[in-house]
Amino acid sequence: MTTHTNARARTRLDFAKSAPKAFRALIGFDAAAREGLDPALVELIQIRSSHLNHCAYCLHMHTNDARKAGESEDRLHMVAVWREARHFFTEREQAALALTEAVTLVADGGVPDDVYAEAAARFDETELAHVLALIFAINTWNRVALSTAKVAGTDERRR
To answer: What gap in Å lies between CA 18 and CA 81, rounded to an integer?
Structure first.
């Protein structure tokens, strides 16, 4: 198993510094995707995608953000196994989590019609478009963090 050390992380480029226009565009896309969505739902989507992509950097960041926004430890612990713990999540959250899984793992079988239909039944078209955009955004952020070997616990966002 490959380990990711701080020394290795220092050998990777700083994406924000090396591609500032692309980085700012991604920040803008992320902000636009979130518009009108419940902040709790936003974090659940980002957490689930980060689980699936094995992105410790983003998982750490978004679980902390969720806690700061008042999310319960019980729900945070159940996100990875939400299908077995449905009673922790609303029907809208379940639909969004299923869609997050399908889009994140799109190469494994596309986005099944039933998963899409359930999400479309729970969200209006604008909300659904924003949920999809958020899923696209977090998948991109996961890939940025993994490709550049970002280290969990070193949230570099400017607040």
So the answer is: 37
Which pLDDT tens digit goes with each residue over 97-126?
999 999 999 999 999 999 999 999 999 999
Distances (CA, A) of 139 to 8, 17, 56: 23, 20, 13
3-state SS, 8-34, equals HHHCCCCHHHHCHHHHHHHHHHHHHHH
Q: Comparing C-alpha atoms, which of 49, 86, 51, 44 is closest to residue 66?
A: 44
How far apart (Å, rounded) are the C-alpha atoms in residues 44 and 64?
12
**Verdict on whether the full-model pTM lies above 0.85:** yes
Phi-psi region of 61 (alpha: psi -120 to 50; beta: other; left: phi over 0): alpha
